[in-house]
Amino acid sequence: MKTLRATPVDDARTAAGRTLPQLLRDRAREFGTRPAISSKRCGIWQSRDWNEVDRLVRLAARGLAASGLRRGEVLALVSENREEQFLLELGALCLGARTVSAYPDTSIDELGYLLEHSDAAIVVGEDQEQVDKILAIMPRAPAIRAVFHVDGRGLWSYDAPALAPVETMMERGASHEDDAWLDAEIDRGRQDDVAVYCYTSGTTGRPKGAMLSHAFILDNAFRLMGSLGVEQGARYLSYISPAWAAEQYFGVGLALLAPMVLHYAEKPETVQSDLREVGPEYLMFTPRQWEMLASNVEARMMDAGALRRALFAWGLRIGRRRLSDKAASLTRTALAPLADLMVLRGVRDMLGLSKVRGALSGGSGLSAELFTRFHAFGVPLGNLYGSTELGLVSSHRRGAAYRPQTMGELMPCDPSIAGSMEAWVDGTDQLRLRLPAFSGYLKNEQATDELGTAAEGYATGDAVRIDEQGELIFLDRVKDMRRLRGGQAYPPQFIENHLRAASMVRDAIVIGDVERDFVTALVNIDGEIAGRFAELRGLAFGTFTELSQLRAVRAEIAALIASVNRLVAPGARVLRFATLPKELDADESELTRSRKLRRETIHERYSDLIEALYRGVSYCDSEIQVKYQDGSIGRLRARVAVNFVEAAP
Amino acid sequence: MPTAAAVDDGLVLEARDLNLSFGAVEALKQVSIRVRQGEIHAIIGPNGAGKSSLLNCLSGFYRPQTGAVVFLGGDVTHLAPHRRAAIGIGRTFQGIQVYPSMTARENILTGFHNRMRAGLLDALVWWGRGRREEEAFATKAEEIIGFLELEELRHATVGDLSYGLRKRVDLGRAIALDPKVLIMDEPMAGTNPEEKGDLARYILDIRDARGTPVVLVEHDMEVVMDISDTVTVIDFGRVIAVGTPAEVRRDPVVIAAYLGQERQ
Would you say A101 and A93 are in contact if contact means Cβ atoms under 8 Å apart? Predict the structure, then answer.
């Protein structure tokens, strides 16, 4: 059994025993008038320096104290990424309170569970949409004492005594206690205190509340800083949700530790253009977000004239070729710089990635194809592997060889917090880790115990291979490596990721277990790309359902599956598939809010289609219950074709 | 001109016994309506009933033969449309009245034209009053962009936008006048259900956030019944009913007018 140990990084910017608010206080002293946060308001980027951020956080802390928030109690935030979210979170932490963030598109039911389970005392809702949900939940969550809103639009005539604007709360803070009192409160904080609850996305069952301490958040921030070599004053665009632990490390911990200049977009709809204006040096997206960026490029190129399309294809080809060690000297010295100048620089600029020094994809695996494409564009994209409970484990280090199949090497821990992390693989292909971990699940000791201990190595539940270079290759969840009736094992996620990398595929679900003799797939096509594809060929369609069943679209998908089949063992190949007649939708519980597939729900909802795939009939008349935007329920009836994939040569 | 006393009971705009005829056609006969602070007042009626004639009398495009239009206690019957706009009677028209080659932000800025005081020279030297004024209006334009949620379309050419979005820009320009009452002629015409819902929301927000009363002529009964505080029903140039949507809906005279039954 080989034990892998992380290479330490020598960086003086350690947490040195401090909590997040203690670190903020020091940063304000050190960096005073240098920019800390930049937000786009009224169409203009407006920045705040460290002194002002410190002042606002203190005001927020005193305001929250005046509203009755005490040490150990919980402030819940339901908001898009915006500076108020950051200021209020740190304000609460100053008091020794804890914070929990929810995704803005969380349903009332999910939010109700989170607010009740976390015993939230004060809730901040970004706008009317969130406030409506919170007010509806209040009767069954008696712990909630006050609700504050950031954007008062539409709330003019609300008659709720517990509701007030955030400004009012901060004004109250100005006359509550003083800075000396607050400094004493900040001093009382200990690095091992719990700072943030982070609810795991819950692909199965109710979400669990992982407790993250100040030390844990800062250690993870250091792991990122060490791997990416993040410089002081680097620009970061806060885009992934603060409800996700990764944003707590990147957008809170690292923003204070490096420190970075945090940028907040005007609103989610303007992120694409704001990204371009900011030109961030470091950023992290989920694989889906990277996929969408890549699809944007393709969609734009489909609209371009033949000459530009040809030029783009040439630039991308040269871009790919220069990645290879065996690239001819002509490519390296002449063609690559020319392609960069004429094509790739423009692509990076259009994506807003022209200044990027470190870009990460976290969550579940990004396909090698897409990974290589971004590298061909000249974007140094790295994979990131980790979990809410154990933090960030491995990533591609800046400047090292980027091998798309791997999750990179182990990350360096903050030496003021822990020694190097260790990793090994046990008899069941499972990755085991020895490293500083989270502080347990809230009110769920049993689940905490199931993870094991650092001494014997935490159980990750992931099937991983450690390769000769000491990099981690993720196969699948141990419990998700699936076997067919004949005993043949296959990696469903690997196949799905490769399918999803094609622009015409939005999602793919691979099916096949011990009850089945072979593998099949359900494919959710990308309506926009497939729509253009059909338009270019003059094929008529009215709805997504019709588009999904066009013969030419199905033939494209069949060819794609055949190409992926070549990558896996013969017994693991996808033999039949169907294109779904509707898009998978989080509102119908087919996806989680972070757009992960909910397999059980999908299997249940499309069971007749799946049976048809295995019976080998030529089509299936399926009927699916759908929920419309206004909340009404309808039934979608469609004839879905069963497609047979040609045996690969 | 406006007097404080008349504003007290919340009456903003009033038409008193208007009579308007074109030759032998009597478009309005003894029509009166009263629009109060903070209400959405819908005017409905079958085609040719006189709804647009009434709006045109309120905003000054038509001059009634007899009767008066009173705005904030002052008689404005004889004021020209642009003078009425200047004292706070805003108006949007059927269809769209935006400048298609300008951006959304520029279109909204044009709405401030009658509040700009700086002259050509001020604008040329870009100093003092001219500059302060432009900065102040740019800030106001941004407020309106935020209010109508047009941030991502700020610099988009309006001619390229969908009908519903152009309609929203049009509304933004009307708000830029900072009207004390807003008159809208068929705002929902030609919009799809989603755009309709959005526009209805913005009209409610104009009432709730700014307290501005809105007078609207609208054919979409669902929208009218949903958002109006008061409905005035006109038929053959006469007011046949006034009341809340629920009252009007139950009124047998209104039902008869809409179903085209023989009238008593």
Answer: no
d(CA A544, CA A527): 7
Tell me how far apart the alpha carbons of residues A98 and A69 are, in angstroms, rounded to a whole number. Answer: 10
pLDDT of B261 strictly over 60: no
User: Which chain B residues touch A267 with a CB distance below 8 Å?
Assistant: 151-152
Beta bridge partners of A633: A627
Q: What is the signed CA dihedral for B35, B40, B46, B49, rounded to 10 degrees? A: 20
C-alpha span between A499 and B104 (Å, rounded):
41
Chain A 14-43, residues with CB within 8 Å of chain B CB atoms = 42-43
Nearest-angstrom CA–CA distance, A207 and A107: 13
Q: What is the dihedral of CA A452, A454, A457, A461, to 10 degrees?
A: 50
What's the token pair of residue A195?
């700072």
pLDDT tens for each residue of A448-479:
998 999 999 999 988 787 877 888 878 777 77
In this structure, what is the dihedral angle of CA atoms A233, A239, A241, A247, given to the nearest 10 degrees? Answer: -30
Distance from CA of B52 to the nearest CA of A (A): 31
pLDDT tens readout for residues B20-65: 999 888 899 999 999 999 999 999 988 888 998 999 999 999 999 9
What is the Cα A108 distance to its own chain's centre? 22
Q: Which residues of B touch A154 (CB under 8 A)?
A: 205, 208
pLDDT category of residue B125 using cuts at 50, 70 and 90: low
| Residue A164: CA count within 13 A, CB half-sphere | 15
B209: chain A residues, CB-CB within 8 Å: 153, 156
The pLDDT, as a whole number, for residue A328 is 74
User: E strand or H helix at B66, and its extent?
Assistant: strand B66-71
CA distance to partner chain A, nearest, from residue B41 (Å): 19
B12's tokens: 């903003």
Q: Evaluate the CA torsion angle A78, A82, A84, A85 in order and state its sign.
A: positive
pTM (2 d.p.): 0.77
Contact between B6 and B72 under an 8 Å Cβ cutoff? The reply is yes
- In terms of residues, how long is chain B? 264
- Residue B262 reports pLDDT greater than 70: no
Six-digit token string for A340: 């960069």
Per-residue pLDDT, B216: 92
A585-to-A105, A507, A588 alpha-carbon distances in Å: 12, 11, 5
Cβ B151–A267 below 8 Å, yes or no? yes
DSSP per-residue codes, chain B: ---HHHHTTTEEEEEEEEEEEETTEEEEEEEEEEEETT-EEEEE-STTSSHHHHHHHHHTSS--SEEEEEETTEE-TT--HHHHHHHTEEEE-SS----TTSBHHHHHHHTTGGG----HHHHHHT-THHHHHHHHHHHHHHHHHHHTT-GGGTTSBGGGS-HHHHHHHHHHHHHHT--SEEEEE-TTTT--HHHHHHHHHHHHHHHHHH---EEEE-S-HHHHHHH-SEEEEEETTEEEEEE-HHHHHH-HHHHHHHHTPPP-
Selecting from B105, B151, B208 the residue whose C-beta is nearest the C-beta of A266 gives B151
Q: Which residues pair with B157 in a beta bridge?
A: B103
Question: Strand A422-425 vs strand A4-5: parallel, antiparallel, or unpaired?
Answer: antiparallel
pLDDT exceeds 60 at position A144 = yes
Nearest-angstrom CA–CA distance, A120 and A123: 7
Of B145, B152, B208, the CB nearest to A157: B208
Q: Say what the pLDDT of residue B96 is.
A: 77
Sheet of B11-22, strands arranged across:
B25-36, B11-22, B66-71, B74-75
In sequence order, the β-bridge partners of residue A394 are A385, A410
DSSP state of A588: G
Residue A260 three-state SS: coil
Cα–Cα distance between A570 and A566 in angstroms, integer?
A: 8
Judge whether B98 and B169 are in contact, CB under 8 Å: yes
